[in-house]
Amino acid sequence: MSRANHGSGLGTGTGTGSSGKGPGQGRGAMRPAGGDGRKPAKPTGTSSSQGMGRGLIAPSARSVALQVLTAVEQEGAYSNLLLNGALQKSGLTGPDAGLATELVYGTIQRLNTIDYFLEPFVTKGLAKLAPWVRNLLRLSFYQLHYLDRIPPHAAVNEAVNLAKKKGHQGISGMVNGVLRSVLRRKEELRFPEGMDPVQRIALEHSHPEWMVKLWIRQYGEEAAEAICRANNEPPSVSVRVNRARISRNEMIRLMEEQGLQAAASKISPDGIVVHSGGNMALTSWYREGLISVQDESSMLVAEALDPRPGMTVLDCCAAPGGKTCHIAEIMEGRGRVLANDIHPHKAKLIEDQAKRLDLENIDTLSSDAMQLAERLDASSFDRILLDAPCSGLGVIRRKPDLKWAKTPGDVAEIAGVQRALLDSASGLLKPGGLLVYSTCTIEPRENAEMVASFLNRHPEFELAVDEPAGWSGRQPLEAAAGRVEAGLQILPQDAHSDGFYIARLRKKSEGNG
What we know:
This protein is an alpha/beta fold. It has helices spanning 49-52, 61-75, 79-90, 94-109, 111-118, 131-146, 152-166, 169-184, 197-204, 209-219, 221-231, 248-257, 284-287, 296-305, 322-330, 344-356, 372-375, 401-405, 408-426, 448-457, 475-481, 492-495, and strands spanning 237-241, 262-264, 271-274, 291-293, 312-315, 336-340, 362-365, 381-387, 429-439, 461-463, 488-490, 500-507. One of its GO terms (molecular function) is methyltransferase activity.
């Protein structure tokens, strides 16, 4: 699968591929630059504004990729947002836009492996290079080492030309020398024998060692390596049909008539996996409200909530509205879905999605989810969805920056927020009602352990013993169903979808507590 589809949802405003509720990347997303590729070194050298502004350069796939990678490192911004803006500004389309996307995501995904191999070739060390030079070497090495379809001489020549335009003769000579040395010794670029599992997996699949160590402890070595391997694969492009407007079979037929390769999702009855077709949010089907862009794992959440026509449903942290709208679609436009988000501009995104999909049973509210219990009546909702802010470790395939930006402390920090949100939201549920807690992470402290702790504090709740119709018959979910005691823990390798957690909690009926 081409990684050109990796950014297929960029800039659409839908954001429904994952929860998008993780904490911001305030520390910068690209870290490894030390001699061993595993211990980050603080970058030094000139800023991106020095050297980057030497004359106007006609945009090319490599110059756009270089611009994005340098900004990601220095500003700590999200690569998908930067790339989308850079592509629009540059005017690159088709294969050129695809190559720029490949270079950005591929370089970030393989960052510490690239740095590990590059380091011996740079006399003064990667960390001492100007950021734009360091990233020029990185994206060039990615082409030489990982992309078979690009002739090596083309990758080297383009890098040298960029270095000449952005820097000076000394820099272009150094870039030329490093890359030609890499080519001469390409067959020697191997990992040493006898590495311990953590080091080996971290380098072979380019993940931070702390993350690999964590996953080995939680899931075992084999599963941890499978997680890392899956995180480096291009994500699927999947859409959700608006069941209120069209059936899945009819939508697939329309796609095939237009020459697209599309197949029914093996996870969600409302999902379609599109194997070719580019940005589905730019299609007339999207504009007309027949489909929404959403990851397959994410589609399970509304189904788990079991919303029914006429019910009153609360979505506590709803933006940008993908799950909210799915809930409303299942309810056939009857009843009420109250979608809350702390940011007014994000609540507006939900309204825009509802309007696009012609859903009139959605109301929006802009409030801190922690304070909903103060604004809404206790025991007033039949269903509550808490798609909680999380570390986002299940969506690294879509957001490779995350694995370099996160620290072990992030998990502990966000877990406290999740705990408070669960405690607050639970009081708004009617007896006999259902609360679904979901995250786009694979971290047990945020998931199964969080739910177990909640049940200990709230004896009026219990795990819902029933499961949505059809879950037991879906092969990709079988491994996930038995992975943890409480809830469904999907890992990225289970079905080539996002890592996701879903737990269904029922409030005991009065007299059963």
